[in-house]
Amino acid sequence: MKKSGKLGALLVLSSMMLVSAACGGNNEGGSSSSPSQEASKSPSASAPASVSPSESASESASASPSAAGKKISLGFAQVGAESGWRTANTESIKSSAAEAGFDLKFSDAQQKQENQIKAIRSYIQQKVDVIAFSPVVESGWDTVLKEAKDAGIPVILTDRAVDSKDDSLYVTFIGSDFVEEGRRAGDWLVEQYKDASEDVNIVELQGTTGSAPANDRKAGFAEKIAANPHLKIIASQTGDFTRAKGKEVMQSFLKAHKKIDVLYAHNDDMALGAIQAIEAAGLKPGVDIKIISVDAVKDGMTAASEGKINFIVECNPLLGPQLMQAVNDVVAGKEIPKRIVTEEGTFTSEQAKEALPNRKY
Amino acid sequence: MRIRKHHLFWPLAMLAALLLFNLIYSPDFFSLQVRGGHLYGSLIDILNFGSPLMLVAIGMTLVIATGGIDLSVGSVVAIAGAMACLTISKGSDQGSLGLVLSAVGLSLVLSLALGLWNGLLVSGVGMQPIIATLILMVAGRGIAQLITSGQIITVTSDSYGYIGSGSLAGLPFSIFLVAAVFAAAGLLTRRTALGLFIEAVGRNPAASRLAGIRSRYVLLAVYLFCGLCAGIAGLILSSNVSSADGNNAGLWYELDAILAVVIGGTSLTGGRFYLTGTVIGALIIQTLTTTIYMIGVPPEITLVVKAFVVLVVCLVQSEAFRQALVRRWKTRHYPAEREAAKHAS
Q: Given an 8 Å threshold on Cβ–Cβ distance, is A206 in contact with B49?
């Protein structure tokens, strides 16, 4: 909370600086979009707010959506409100946009790609300065992104990537690195069992089969635990990221395997379901079976603070401040990296207990 | 009695085959222990996790018997769970029995209302059942998400959790709910004329109307009952994990339920139904799911394995397929048969 407040203040400050810089720089605000497009191709054109007068003159001749002094307008097409994670994500974007003084146009696609495409098209028509969105699915975005590019509106992806060969269609992708999350979970486990002399039996609850977080979290985890031959994944099954399935699959695991030492769940909800299954089997979650989970949503953190989950890798939905920073940079014409990884932490049970009162989601 | 036995033979044989496979593959499958005052084992899991499906399928059987279909059951499952969890989470003392009872009552009334909506569309407006219930199937998920505001509502109420994960006399409480609903449905349809009416409406609506059956009310009744069954299933599902998930609860349940009904021997064209067969069908599906988890089928091919087993189940049940097999077997030819026959003559 403190951190985001500070970041927000920084953003307000930087946006103010931008506005004043734009005033000084020959009414340059209208050129917000096209320099950034060029910026991604040629670094030389990335000098902030000091574009040559001729170029800015030609730019301001065209209808400029945000002349100097006007708010930067940001169109954001959200996936939906399918989970607590997503809601926190939305809240973060709304509040940090308000803090940064942006004019945020927000739409909720209710998990449908066509709704998102419609929203993006309407943003193009409204001539917003920047479009940001979390793609529902990976493919099928080329046409609409091309339209945005032709209209000279930079696009920022958040949280999820698109599967497009042409990476000039978007400026940057801000989101979690799922492989890294899996690695962190693996690292903790390797550290815990570094002195293990006998086999450690691990069961894994995967996310929805074929989804990016499930594939990547599995791969990252497997990569790290390969360091210790005693760490063995004896069963791995999908729990569809839901509590009900997590519980059902874990009950079967408990019956099929006599000795389970560690559970690695790809999200908190499945871990919570599995905890119920473990308790129903008369075992103590977190003690008899160590539990590692990813996400750090409120219910998961609560379970961690009670010692039922031993280690949670955070998958941070609060990427609003970073998004606003990127928007500012793009509008200012600065060059920004193609991939921005969200700031994420990890929590042990003790850390979860401390962090819980301050969690936003 | 003979005919009845014959009818249930194949579903039972398939269930037995699945269990036999488990017996060979992992003998522990049948081990039952007493842990914490209740029985513990895979068979108990199958009963417990299978109970929502059995309930939904029982309701679905009667709807299908009238020649209809109810696609909205999955959504009703989600709505019922969401409503109950919302009511409980709003209460001051989540554990109080009164609050839980009122939450349960409220969501059951709601699911009856949804069943009534389906029934009115089908019998009153005269809409095709598949379209009429498709409306609620799509809209219902939205309603469930509206109730939960798109969140997963977690409740910490032991009395509510009892519905889905409590145990009575060592067995899961949910199985007693199934038994009660099954007994009620069985008595109503087989000990009164209602069953005959349902089958008559399913076989020939016009003829049954001319014979003096108020087919409208019969239709209304089956959709109401199906809604109620889905509602109870929703309560069991959400109470099992003490949370309501508007997005995922009961997703694709309608398809599993229809499959259970078909495996049980009820024809989709209506006019005939077998409640016991449906229950066995639901048990086959749940046993198959548990088996797949137990033997560690990779998640990528789980659905293929499931589809294959279902295909075998359906083929074996088909009279025509069995006869074709038998005919082939009886008239089989050996590679050298013709030559041998030539020399013999």
A: no
- CA dihedral of residues A187, A189, A190, A196 (deg, nearest 10): 170
CB contact under 8 A, A281 and B29: no
According to CATH, where is 3.40.50.2300 located in chain A?
2-176+317-344, 178-315
CB A333 within 8 A of CB A351: no
By the CB < 8 Å criterion, does B139 face chain A?
Answer: no
Q: What is the ipTM of this complex?
A: 0.87
Domain made up of A178-315: CATH architecture: 3-Layer(aba) Sandwich (3.40)
Contact A281 B249 (CB under 8 A): no
Q: Which CATH number is associated with domain A2-176+317-344?
A: 3.40.50.2300
Q: Does B17 touch chain A (CB under 8 A)?
A: no
CB contact under 8 A, A252 and B245: no
B156 — contact with chain A (CB < 8 Å)?
no
Each domain of chain B, given as residue ranges in start order, spans: 50-278
Assign residue A174 a region: left if phi > 0, alpha if psi is -120 to 50, beta otherwise? beta
Q: Which residues of A touch B241 (CB under 8 A)?
A: 243-244, 247, 272-273, 276
Taking only the tens of pLDDT, chain A with its 361 residues reads 444 555 555 555 455 544 444 443 333 333 333 333 333 333 333 333 333 344 443 343 333 444 445 788 999 998 877 667 788 888 899 999 999 999 999 988 877 888 899 999 999 999 999 999 988 887 888 899 999 999 999 999 988 888 877 888 899 999 888 999 999 999 999 999 988 888 999 999 998 887 778 889 999 999 999 999 999 999 999 998 889 999 999 999 999 898 999 999 999 999 999 999 999 888 999 999 999 999 888 889 999 999 999 999 998 888 888 999 999 999 988 888 888 888 888 999 989 888 888 777 7
DSSP state string for B46-98: HHHHHHHHHHHHHHHHHHHHTT---TTHHHHHHHHHHHHHHHHHHSS-TT-HH
- What's the predicted TM-score (pTM) here? 0.79
Of B29, B240, B248, nearest to A240 by CB-CB distance is: B248
Task: Give the integer Cα–Cα distance in Å for A120 and B262.
Answer: 45
